[in-house]
Amino acid sequence: MVFSTRGLVLGATALLGAGAVVTGAGLHLSSSWAVFRDSPKEVIDQVWQVINQEYVDGTFNGVDWRAVRTQYLNRNYASTDEAYTAVREMVDKLGDPYTRFMDPGQFQSMRIDTSGELTGVGIQISQDEETKKITVISPIEGSPASDAGIRAQDIILEVDGQSTEGMDINQVVSLIRGPVNSNVVLTISRGTQELSYTLKRARIELHPVRFSQKSSPMGDIGYIRLTQFNSNAETEMRNAIRELDSQDVAGFILDLRFNPGGLLDSSAKIARMWMDHGDIVSTIDRQGVEVRMSAERRGKLTDKPLVVLVDGGSASASEILAGALQDNNRAVLVGTKTFGKGLVQMVHPLRDGSGLAVTIAKYYTPSGRDINKKGIEPDITVELTEEQQEKLTRDTVGTQEDPQYLRALSALNEQITAQRSQIQSSAPEQGVSN
């Protein structure tokens, strides 16, 4: 089977202010939705039919989906806004925070434009399925949220003094978004603390890769930080590996901490830069059809030792890459357990300019692990104290002030030593000529 990754998104529920989105193609809706064309009911029926055809669970999580259609189409709607409210109610019945409806403004703000910029505060959020709390997946590096100190796993209690209790994620997104240079106050819960942050909305340039050459006891090594899997990630990662390899580094540290994910295709292509054989990921849809993505022969750029840094902010596409490298024994993982999102969404533009992200498949690591709600355990666990987390900023990450980086460096040096010993032991003995 040919596996097309067009339209497949691996990220958490909402990115403020934009998301890595590719619109889906090839959807064939039933002709019945056309009956409601140009009426508020049109979007309700179109959303219903997309979910009916594509949703990963054929039982719709125990919901009588046909009865839902009858329930919502038998109502009268005086306006499009009323219909949008009904659509959100309908989608919420699935109990899936990753399947979500976006009105035209929300859908447009999720698109990354050609300049690689987004507008907002720079956090990706999700809604807990059980508690319904709005949780930060990860701040975007260099964004107002990141610079202010917002962290993965923070819970957003209020936006500008308005409680988020009882709100769905789209309502929270609408409150947080706003004009560039305007302020928004987020009140968050972190453990036993309740903190408030005033953030200035901004235009954020999205350069997902930064890299540097660093010294170590075993020689220079390459440090690469990947902050998200957007359309620029593949090219920037390829350039980083080639540049560092040309400097004859002895090994690499790939930092996926606080990386909330992005495009499936991007994660697979980056995995192939590090490995030229083995499976990367498999997906299973609601028909039980399994599709595997594998590394390609002669595709990798380097076979030098590799250590990958992960934490609770490493989600979805990050987990695919980390899981592929771990299961294929290509890298050692250092840090803390990852977020645990093992679902794939397809994003569909709707006729009126709104959009729908629908969960269409589950994914599994090469060894068959289902990491959804479980995450990936690192090979070497390094927990950070509250004080250490406070000190970990854009300027200190990947430095001597970063305990997880220092442990990763130690693990990399061990790998480099082992590789050199293996090369020496396998080299033929030199004969002596008389």
Automatic annotation (TrEMBL):
Record Pfam families: PDZ_6, Peptidase_S41, Tricorn_C1
Q: What is its EC number?
A: 3.4.21.102
| Reaction catalysis annotation | The enzyme shows specific recognition of a C-terminal tripeptide, Xaa-Yaa-Zaa, in which Xaa is preferably Ala or Leu, Yaa is preferably Ala or Tyr, and Zaa is preferably Ala, but then cleaves at a variable distance from the C-terminus. A typical cleavage is -Ala-Ala-|-Arg-Ala-Ala-Lys-Glu-Asn-Tyr-Ala-Leu-Ala-Ala
Chain ranges of the PDZ domain: 109-177
Q: Which PROSITE patterns match?
A: PDZ
Q: Which SUPFAM superfamilies does this UniProt record tie to the protein?
A: ClpP/crotonase, PDZ domain-like
Q: Which GO terms describe its biological process?
A: proteolysis; signal transduction
Superkingdom to which the source organism belongs: Bacteria
Q: Name one GO molecular function term.
A: serine-type endopeptidase activity
GO annotation, cellular component aspect = outer membrane-bounded periplasmic space
Write the record's keywords in alphabetical order, separated by commas.
Hydrolase, Protease, Serine protease
> Which protein family is named in the record?
Belongs to the peptidase S41A family.
Which protein are we looking at? C-terminal processing peptidase
Q: Which organism is it from?
A: Petrachloros mirabilis ULC683
